[in-house]
Amino acid sequence: MARARLVTHAYRYPEGWQGVKRERLTREYARELSAPGFTLVRARRGFFDVREVSLSWYIG
Fold first, then answer.
1. How far apart are CA 48 and CA 39, in angstroms?
2. What is the value of pTM for the model shown?
3. Residue 42: strand pairing partners
4. C-alpha span between 49 and 60 (Å, rounded)
5. Residue 56, CA distances (Å) to 33, 44, 46, 60 in order
6. What is the C-alpha separation between 42 and 6, in angstroms, rounded?
7. Which of 48, 50, 45, 52 is nearest to 24 (CA)?
8. pLDDT, tens digit, for every residue of 1-60?
């Protein structure tokens, strides 16, 4: 089973990237982040694997 992604930053327009609470990227946390208007997150899995992920993948 793959390791869960850990959220480090979130993006919303027009402020840009902002640091957020480091937590596993789950459906509940994605909903919590999308409520104030965040649309993307930077999520890491391991040391080098950092990706920008759309919150819609977890909410839909």
1. 23
2. 0.85
3. 9, 52
4. 24
5. 11, 17, 23, 6
6. 8
7. 45
8. 577 899 999 999 999 999 999 999 999 999 999 999 999 999 999 889 999 999 999 887
Q: Where are the domains of the chain?
A: 6-59
User: In which residue are the tokens 């850990």 written?
Assistant: 6
Q: Is 28 helix (H, G, I), strand (E, B) or coil?
A: helix
Structure token pair of residue 14: 């027009």
Query: What pLDDT is attached to residue 46?
Result: 85
Q: Please list, residue by residue across 2-16, b when 16 or more beta carbons sit within 10 angstroms of its beta carbon and e when fewer do.
A: eeebbbbbbbeeeee
Which tokens hold the place of 16? 């840009």
In the chain, the amino acid numbered 8 is T
Q: What are the distances in angstroms from CA 24 to CA 1, 13, 14, 16? A: 15, 23, 25, 21
